[in-house]
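[agent] plan:
  1. take the single chain provided in the ticket
  2. run structure prediction with default settings
  3. attach structure tokens to the ticket
  4. add a short note for the reviewer (M.T.)
[agent] executing step 1
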Amino acid sequence: MKTNRKTLCLLIAALTVGGAMLSCGGGDSTNQTETTAAVSGGENTETVTEEVSELEQLPAADYGGHVVNIMLNDQDDRFVDIMTEGEETGDTLNDVVYRRNRAVEEKYNVTIEGVSEEYNAVNTMIQKEVQSGLTDYDLYFSNCYASTPATGGYLYDITTLPNVDLSNPWWDTAALEGMSIGGKIYMVTGDVSPTSLLTSSCLVFNKKLFSANDMEYPYEMASNGTWTLDKLVEMTKGLTSDVNGDGKYTLNDDVFAFSSWMCDSPYSLFFGAGATFSSKDDNDIPYVDFNVDKISSVYDKIYQLILEQDSYFVTDPNLYETTYECFSNGGAYFCEITLQKIDLFLRDMEDDYGILPIPKWDEAQSDYLSCVNGAGGFVVVPSNPEDAERTGMILEALAAGAYDTITPSIYEVITKTKNVRDEESAEMVNLIIRNRVYDPFYINLCSGYNIVQTQLSSKKEEIASAIEKQLKGAEKALTKIIDAYASLE
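[agent] step 2 finished; step 3 output follows
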């Protein structure tokens, strides 16, 4: 599953010398116009190609000053997908989002207003608004828990929303494949949610600790495709150290090989190793696909890395931020994280660090795979929009405008400023965002989706028996979702 082609071209272009654009093949001239200018002092002319933004190419409309109200969730500052300081401040993300919003407002004669609510409250609000017949919000920026209002009939099938073309490159193809059931899609993401792109999972490593132990940075392995889960386990073996000699491993007193927490690393490492819980048939219907041997093999390695090797593994949600505190304070060699959390939690880290993709299962695995945490930004439309045509047009315009200007700028922020401190990490980011994973079983939160997390948190050494016990319930849960989709008009 891959990010869209043009987004990838833009991201790759950010890495080229002087910003020269690389061709990704299948060139599309629809976003260019040609003008001819005479060369001074002669009859020769030269063709000057001027690029026309995707937003400019969308149909224009006048919506009479309509206020586009958007509800966003506040998880990890995801409200920045829309909300700004109301002016340019010099902060890159704020400024590009602000300019995108203004461009959409001017093109469609609307005013964009964003408000945020607590992480889990957004989906409850959707249901209440629809049940009450209210149309207070045009769009909601939610998370995978929107799968519940989707099956309840509270969301609009985006495939039928006027003015939205999901074949456009600003929509994440991998997400569409993962979230569609029988051709119906109620949650979408892509360039419209820059924080969704940044929710891609990855690893960071402490260069100071590596150098102190004469350890080679894993960049070359990552570049040549040999960065595997076995290599990570091997590299971290024996690194956890009881620095103060008190016979136990304690945050801020000792050094850990690996730092992570239960709601992220089990999924990142599992999906990164190519394991899944479901597949799809030719009719776009997902089915439970528990490959017990593969799941067990991957789990064994994750168990070894996190539990047998005494990593810093947070299971208390109230302490989740200490996962990154451990690393940023120089207390861990590796940390599982997302691109967005790098900015949130490592911006003031003193030690130099580097970024790596989540390791493959083995060298035969064709690509590095980045789990997109279910908390990532998924955009939904209530099933009773006041004006479906207008809502669709604004949604498409916000996405196209982000594709034009926000995504390339976001990438530059990650790779060129305080968040990443070397050119190699910039190349690693390209590997991280190239293949993002959306397992339908996980995205729809089917019974058993959290089995790896549950087993690790309980310090269980094996997972096969737990998987087998989950099979019947999992199939029942997924069938219920499929039936619900089939019943919706």
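[agent] step 4 note for reviewer: Residues 1-42 have pLDDT under 50 and may be disordered.
[agent] ticket updated
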